[in-house]
Amino acid sequence: MSVTFVNLPLLALSAGVALTVVAGSAFAAETETVEENPTLAQTPGDQPAISPPYFLTPEMSDQLAFEQAIAADNSAALIMFLARNPDTKQVTEVRQLLAARKTPDNLVVIEAVAAGDAEVVRAFDAARLAGNRESWDAFMKLHGGHPLAAQVQYFMP
């Protein structure tokens, strides 16, 4: 099928009506909106129809964040999950995964994952790995106002 573009004089059409030119003849036809028929929304170059927005439920968002933290395969990502998602159903599993990790992350990794919270994450991980009350007390003294402070009770001996 070939498409021919023609320059037509300005026509006044009512809303919901489109002018179609087929084989040199012009036809006015009722149209559908994208809201009525999402398959009408096309991207340039005859790409497939644009999908409607995909909305995540809070539970789906928590699960996605959990999966991303695990996929990152470092302690910093798990610690940041605890800081950002303290009330999710995945928290217990994240704490168990974190407890199984016995070496600290590289400082570059911590910076990449935690950015502005890198020092807090590093201190939290250091206290966790030290595993003694003095380390946790030092963490609380420096970072007691951070959301990670609420997680200390689960790691302190």
Which structural class best describes the helix and strand composition? mainly alpha
Low-confidence stretches: 1-29
What is the percentage of strand-forming residues? Answer: 5-15%
Quick check: average pLDDT? 80
Order of helices and strands: EEHHHHHHH
Order of strands across the main sheet: 1-2
- Based on CA atoms alone, the radius of gyration comes out at 28 Å
Q: Judging from the principal axes of the Cα atoms, what is the shape? A: elongated
Q: How would you sum up the major sheet?
A: 2 strands, antiparallel
Oligomerization category of the chains in this entry: single chain
Assign a percent range to the helix content: 40-55%
> What is the strand tally?
2
Distance between the termini: 74 Å
Count of structural domains: 2
Q: TL;DR?
A:
The chain is mainly alpha-helical. It is about 45% helix and about 10% strand.
Task: Provide a descriptive summary of the structure in words.
The protein is mainly alpha-helical. The protein folds into 2 domains: 1-53, no CATH class; 58-155, no CATH class. It contains 7 helices and 2 strands. It has helices spanning 58-72, 75-84, 91-100, 107-114, 118-130, 133-143, 152-155, and strands at 17-22, 25-30. The longest helix is centred in the middle third of the chain and has 15 residues, at 58-72.
